[in-house]
Amino acid sequence: MQKKLYIACLLILSTSIISSCVKDYLNSDQYFKDRLTTDKVFKSKVYSEQWLAHVFEELKGENADVSSKGNTPFSFADDMFYGDRDKDFDPSKNELSYNMFKMGEYNEGDKQNSWSQAYRGIRNASTFIHNIGLNLEMSADEIDDYRGQARFARAYLYWILLRKYGPIPLLPDEGLDYTDSYDALSIPRSSYESCAEFIANEMLQAAKEMEAIGTNRGQDGSARPTAGAALTTRAKVLLFSASPLANGNNSAFAARLVDDKGNRLLSAEFKEEKWAKAAAAARDVIEMGVYQLYTAPFQETGNDASVKPPADNNFSEQNWPLGWANIDPAKSYAQVFDGTLQASGNPELIFTRGNNQLGEGINAMVAHQLPRSATGWNTHGLTQKLVDAYYMNDGKDAPGKDKEIGRGNGSNRLTGYVTLEDYEAGKFKPLRTGVSLQYANREPRFYASVAYNGSFWTLLNETQERNRNQQVFYYRDNAQGNGFNSSNAYWLRTGFGVKKFVHPSDTYEGGSMARIVSKAEPALRYADVLLMYAEALNELTGTYSIPSWKGNNYSISRDIHEIQRGIHPIRIRAGVPDYSNSTYNNKDEMRKTIKRERFIELMGEGHRYFDLRRWMDAPVEEALPIYGCNVLMNVNERDLFHQPIAVWSLKTTFADKMWFWPISHTELKQNHRLTQNPGWTYND
Fold first, then answer.
1. Using an 8 Å Cβ cutoff, are 479 and 440 in contact?
2. Which of 92, 152, 218, 311 is most exposed, with minimal Cβ within 10 Å?
3. Separation of CA 550 from chain center
4. Are 63 and 116 in contact (CB under 8 A)?
5. Which run of H or E residues covers position 213?
6. CA separation for the pair 627, 385 (Å, rounded)
7. How many Å is the Cα radius of gyration of the chain?
């Protein structure tokens, strides 16, 4: 046992961050005398906590859920792009550009730290789980809670691997000697279904272990989970397992994805009950009564007075949570992400790595979203498809929606601009003079998320008052420097920037991150739970009796009132009317609507890339041309600027090899039973 613990400790030493007290001990002569015995570590609360902290360190970097592209590109898909790090515009760059990412031009050596980090964390979590019971300085409830945290981390690391690489090897819980030969250590990939079942069961056990202490534990930015975080991850894993990619997949790609014995890793058999299990798991989180969507109060006066959505004779007539009469929908959505709320004060934040995502966290994203006139990099932007997805404030589609990609309804995009008279009369709030009417009367989430041409940036942390409160335009040759510039890459390819995550005070003046308000990463958010619940219920035709995590049974079926239990809070908080009865009564229409709701509500949070794959929509959606404004036009050609065109500088395609990330050649050589994902190579 001490030998195995010693090896695990050496694995810990390979990580970059360790507290000085433990690091000093591990480097001392005493360590080499007793090989950091089981007693020495796990009887001590301090050393045990440090061991566990190291496990959670492995959730950072490339294993982040929401971060800038330096960590992971998965926050970007057909909704949000990044224009920097592109050798087509800067030959000195040799990094994974958005175009390379979208064209599948990465290789088996790119972004592979996630694999080594995850398995290192998995091994160390297992050691902790099996030894924390030796602790003499904790109560029984504390030991259970710490064991549950470690179990959560281990299962979450497996989850990160599963969604990125597809089916992966599951290490034996005990009995694996890491000093054995590579052949002895070789483990094949388990099926997707087996991986999902293992992770879900582990998360259920973790929730039970954390229940006494970790049910209401406040999120303080320390990346420590709760029972709710475990149950939420369980719901998400089961939802993915129920989705078409892993449930009834008879594609040619699925037939080629096999283990070393030729066994299929994606199930060709469809099981509707998987959807019922996913719905029940999401309901477990809802029934806890711990989480709720955040809302900001309606503000009658002031420069940032609330904009009231038009009456719908339903939600508009009632106060939250039955309606939006007393809340500000735009602020309610924006402040979830922009740093207004600390992690511990955000009622819908279920799990976060906090503000600590090294140099590529959300603050780095914001630095790349801010305009050049605020010294931002001005390179993260949105696609026309995402902009079109947002509803009008009366719940209807925007005129001309998706016309250019062949999905229009025959309507044309609005023409005209906000005049000075319009602005002074308070028409088209919050638009200002000179803004296209294409962006008028849109739903509140649009204004909290989209930096359209002529949008307003407060930039309150600018030291010079004259640099605050800017109306930013993206016309070519704009004096502010925010438009197309042939001499560099710092311009928005589509003419749409990103407001989501940006606090009213944020600026990047002097290249200082200190001027950007810290934001907690929304790794797991209650809005996602509600949408998962609605999605899973919508797929059912039968009725299923599924046990809750407490042991009592739920009757799960396609009950419209239960679907609305997931949908209504999202729509009300967003200030948008409810769907029609005909939509609720039509499973296919409801599916399309829920997909659109996820597209809007979860934009930029690392969901879209994986959603498109689990739905098996990626071959169409990821390959569609990206449209945007004609950024080569100047202010004198503003009608042409606002006429969407295919963006020549953003490329798209989809190939079978892009369903899952390639496994590195190093791992394939070390584990001879490991098989590569179809479309990628394995060099002996």
1. no
2. 92
3. 28
4. no
5. helix 192-214
6. 7
7. 25
3-state helix, strand and coil shares in percent for the chain, rounded to the nearest 5: 45, 5, 50
Q: Which of 473, 495, 518, 525 has the alpha carbon at shortest distance from 366?
A: 518
| Residue 561, H or E segment | helix 560-574
How far is residue 157's CA from residue 149's CA, in Å, rounded to a whole number? 12
- Would you state the structure tokens that stand for residue 548, as one six-digit string? 């809750």
Handedness of CA 193, 268, 259, 162 (dihedral sign): negative
How many angstroms from the chain centroid is the CA of residue 342? Answer: 18
Query: CA torsion angle for 77, 82, 88, 91 (degrees, to 10)?
Result: -130
Task: Tell me if 576 sits within 8 A of 391, measured CB to CB.
Answer: yes
**Tell me, what amino acid is at 282?**
A
Per the structure block, which two tokens stand in for 544?
């299923």
The Cα–Cα gap between 594 and 531 comes to 7
State the amino acid at position 59 in one-letter form: L
486 in Cβ contact with 438 (< 8 Å): no
pLDDT in tens, 561-585: 999 999 999 999 999 999 999 999 9
Q: Enter the tokens of residue 27.
A: 């480097």
The answer to whether 300 and 227 have CB atoms below 8 angstroms apart is no
Cα–Cα dist 15/52, whole Å: 13
Give tens-digit pLDDT for 179-226: 555 566 789 999 999 999 999 999 999 999 999 997 766 544 456 899
Contact yes or no for 472/373 (Cβ under 8 A): yes
Report the alpha-carbon distance of residue 223 to residue 152 in Å, rounded: 11
d(C-alpha 684, C-alpha 5), whole Å: 32
pTM: 0.93
DSSP 439: G
pLDDT higher than threshold 50 for residue 30: no
